[in-house]
Amino acid sequence: MILVSYDIADDKLRTQFSKFLQKYGNRMQFSVYKIQNSKRLLDIIKNEIDTIFKNLFSQTDSVLIIETSENCKISKYGYLKNEESDIIIVD
Q: Which parts of 6-54 fold into alpha helices (H)?
């Protein structure tokens, strides 16, 4: 599983980035997405961040990508609305 978390100040850019991530994974929280652990998907996401979004980010914006392993333990509390949703990939 890949976790992508972001903190983007500009509302329009934040919405655009969120819609971009929705193509590849499920929203777990407002600014946290869970994406299937795939090198291909990770490469696509990083490439689009580098070529499209990176130049649009301000000095206060940040994106965190966490690649988990099979041995990674994740504790969940509460209800994750989109936890079991299908992933739709649009190229």
A: 11-22, 39-48
